[in-house]
Specification:
Layout: H1 2-17, H2 24-33, H3 47-60, H4 65-76
Length: 78
Amino acid sequence: MKYFLYLVFIGIVACSAARNYTSNEEKVYYEKCSGCHRPHDRNEHNAEEWSAVMKKMSKKAHLSDDENRMIIKYLAGK
């Protein structure tokens, strides 16, 4: 049992360290959004739809204006 817990711990550490972000916007998206739900595919919505989604979600996630802009920029692919 002890070895199993060590393996689980190593797996968690390895997975959390494996993410390489390509931009600050992507980092903010994953840090702020994926704590409550799965990360969405950026192609799931167009830029206008992402803005509408983020208007609702930014309040729930208590995002700053800068964080909200960064996430919209990332999701809209700008």
